[in-house]
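Example for tutorial group B:
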């Protein structure tokens, strides 16, 4: 589909890889459900195919780069490669990426650093095209969803990957619920009149609803900091009205543990810490304590084995977009889950 839409070989492969990977680890909100929307944005000029990252400023330990509204799956990977390379040489790197197309699942970038043996922290916002969330105490949209991600390498197991929105629910999860015809959990969204609702249709109505910050003032405070670091500091801008495209800005901090102490010492400490946390008595007799990132790792194993299930609405949207591009795809058979 992306090749037919005009993306070059490297680009369409990267987009497909990261969208499918999001589904494999269970983040369906950032998976192939996004493909038709991405192509709509491409046709409307809101994202630009085959862009190369522009270097705005660079020194040994930091870089400011402009994504030129290219696909985030390409821009995010390029920015992370640059940051990891600097961290290898300097022990620390800060990369400010601005004006990128939608960066997809931010945990991908934390995972990429962790696989390279680096600890990383990522703050993301949009400059206004993705205003979705209400501030604490408010009922109208004023903030982006503002994800925050972090990654830690683990020597004998999956990396610790924290990948959260500062909202109660990611907008993509609302879209998944909308497509499936199911409700969202309590306390996640407001309708256009500022009333609590479980109906995803109310979120997309006119006037639109808003997502609530998680933990009240705590999530709201993190969202504000994400706006400052990802928006103001990168030069991409904080969330504001009057923007007609969804573009992401991301500030990434990458650390090489080997510059702080021995690699063996660091990994041993992480292993002992994980064991200590997991030694706690569980709520349920057959319960299990998982580290951040372990549920995704397990879901990936299962979905690689069993396949990725898509609801009919999402599948039909992909089929319709494929047909519009002249791309033939197999006919999927519906089955009871």
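The residue assignment follows.
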């Amino acid at each position: 589909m992306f090749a037919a839409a005009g993306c070059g070989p490297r680009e369409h492969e990267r987009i497909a890889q990261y969208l499918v990977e999001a589904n494999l680890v269970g983040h369906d909100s950032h998976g192939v459900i996004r493909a038709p929307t991405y192509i709509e944005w491409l046709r409307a000029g809101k994202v630009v195919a085959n862009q190369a990252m522009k270097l705005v400023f660079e020194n040994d330990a930091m870089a400011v780069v402009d994504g030129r509204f290219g696909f985030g799956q390409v821009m995010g990977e390029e920015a992370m490669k640059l940051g990891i390379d600097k961290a290898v040489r300097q022990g620390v790197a800060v990369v400010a990426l601005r004006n990128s197309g939608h960066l997809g699942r931010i945990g991908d970038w934390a995972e990429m650093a962790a696989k390279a043996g680096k600890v990383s922290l990522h703050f993301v916002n949009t400059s206004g095209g993705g205003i979705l969330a209400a501030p604490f105490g408010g009922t109208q949209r004023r903030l982006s969803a503002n994800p925050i991600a972090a990654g830690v390498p683990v020597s004998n197991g999956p990396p610790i990957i924290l990948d959260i929105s500062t909202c109660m629910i990611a907008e993509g999860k609302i879209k998944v619920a909308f497509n499936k015809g199911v409700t969202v959990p309590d306390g996640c969204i407001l309708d256009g009149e500022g009333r609590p609702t479980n109906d995803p249709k109310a979120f997309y109505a006119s006037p639109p609803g808003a997502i609530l910050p998680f933990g009240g003032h705590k999530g709201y405070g993190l969202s504000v900091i994400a706006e400052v670091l990802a928006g103001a500091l990168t030069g991409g801008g904080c969330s504001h009205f009057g923007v007609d495209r969804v573009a992401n800005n991301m500030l990434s901090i990458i650390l090489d543990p080997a510059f702080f102490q021995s690699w063996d010492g660091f990994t041993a400490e992480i292993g002992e810490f994980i064991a200590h946390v997991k030694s706690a008595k569980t709520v349920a007799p057959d319960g299990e304590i998982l580290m951040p990132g372990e549920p995704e790792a397990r879901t990936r194993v299962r979905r690689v084995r069993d396949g990725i299930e898509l609801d009919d609405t999402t599948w039909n949207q992909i089929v319709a977009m494929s047909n519009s591009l002249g791309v033939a795809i197999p006919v999927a058979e519906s089955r009871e889950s």
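The mean pLDDT is 95. Compare this with the pattern of hydrophobic and polar residues in the output above.
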